[in-house]
What does this fold into?
Amino acid sequence: MVSKQIQDMEVETLASACLFLIVVTLLWLSATTKPFSTTSTAIFPKVYPIIGSAFSVAANDHRRNQWLSNILQNSPTATFVLHRPFGTRQIFTANPANVQHILKTHFHIYYKGPTLNSTVGDFLGNGIFNADGDKWKFQRQHSSHEFNTRSLRKFVETVVDDELSNRLIPILSHASKTQTTFHDFQDILQRFTFDNICRIAFGYDPEYLIPSLPETEFVKAFNDGTEICSWRLNAAVPLFWKIKKLLNIGSEKRLRVAISQVRDLATKIIREKKQELKEKNTLESVDLLSRFLSTSLSDEALVSDIIVSFILAGRDTTSAALTWFFWLLSKHPHVEKEVLKEIDEKSETSASAYDEVKNMVYTHAALCESMRLYPPVPAGRKEASNDDVLPDGTFVKKGTGVVFHTYTMGRSEKIWGPDWAEFRPERWLNRVQEDDKWKFKGVDPFTYPVFLAGPRVCLGKEMAFLQMKTMVAGIMRQFKVVPVVANGAEPEYTSALTSLVKGGLHVRIEARSVTKTHY
Ligand code: HEM
Ligand SMILES: *[C@@H]1O[C@H](CO)[C@@H](O)[C@H](O)[C@H]1NC(C)=O
It folds into this structure.
């Protein structure tokens, strides 16, 4: 045991020395050569031989989205080419015409591709998120049943409602009575969405949102996996993590452990489900997992990949969106008032919980507006499978990575007008004159690709809105969520795969003085 540790340490020291040598060489090379580009201003990153703009990428790692946004806003067609190490290029765009081209009209050219898979494939395997071609089609077709109206209604009326009434509300109630604060409200929301996605997708209840707020190994492993994959994706010099992986050290060693823990649980869920299906002989629970297991698919590894992709899709996105939403509401009392008004109105006039949230137009707009400023998925990545030219004239060489930057698009003056920085749900609404009611006014998905667009548009979009509105109504009807932050302090938008609030959100829960509650 001890000698194994010493051995590990030696390997690690050796590897660190190698990395150090590489860095020094690169530094020396770039210090002795002049940058290529002549247009290098403070905004556009300098380009050096061999390492490209790796220095700028590394220097802006902590504010990657803001940095990219600044560059894109200052590019004539909202498109620019980032020079990566060893002559690789990556195209970034915030131009709606390009986005439409990539996601829809030239969908056949832009696929997830081998570069993405070499980065996240270890963790996601062949799951829907990084699958292409027939593997993607198969998963898309079979999962889409889970998202029809009947399933969605059932989802809201059983799973979400149960998690809300029997888990979340009692916990918030207790906090408001004892005046304890939540160090991290985002964590509470993630527990909620984690239970939810596991129950709907696999018919498995992990009981993660319970008063003791347990730490579970699986969730820790899952967090490690997504975090380390984000690092890989954003790495200034990808060669570094590849070396670390080869030597199985540091974060790469942690990733390997995390992956095997996540796989173990996924396999356990699958075996239990198989047993259950065998015993029952009928398919009474129509969760996604049962569906896949009852197809001709017997490949346990693939089913386990599917599980991982769905947890990733369903957990962090909605919880990140809601955390930012509650933060914004706390700063915009008039929006909060309007949302509360709608909650009261709808709970009086609706026949069921499903109808109630289905018709919450103002809240829907407020959520869209919140995700415009803080998109849960800040960027989308594709790879060109052939040479191509984007509508704005940018040439795309086969194999080039193309990233559309949703975060920048949500903050573009050209798209949203001079008041783009304001949180104003009304921009998504029309007042209908006759009955003084709000009517939702959509925006085309290429201008607002928060859920993507085209054939690979988010499958869970409607489910996510129903879930978020049910949670918002359930929470706000009884409680006020008050962030506990220093005056003027802003939560930080992270640059990970999903943009959660960095470090979470510290809040106090106050019981609302009695409104017309229906609980
Ligand atoms: C606010 C919440 C959500 C947002 C903003 C969101 C956004 C997105 C985005 C941007 C993608 C494309 C990712 C990519 O290919 O690069 C995506 C795909 C997907 N989402 Fe969502 N999502 C949300 C919630 C959900 C939920 C609750 C589910 C339910 C399980 C879900 C299921 C999926 C699936 C299965 C895909 C892959 C679709 C495909 O590649 O064909 N999403 N989502
Ligand atoms: C993606 O990567 C994983 C793990 O490295 C591998 O199992 C899978 O076959 C790859 N998929 C494709 C399409 O290359």
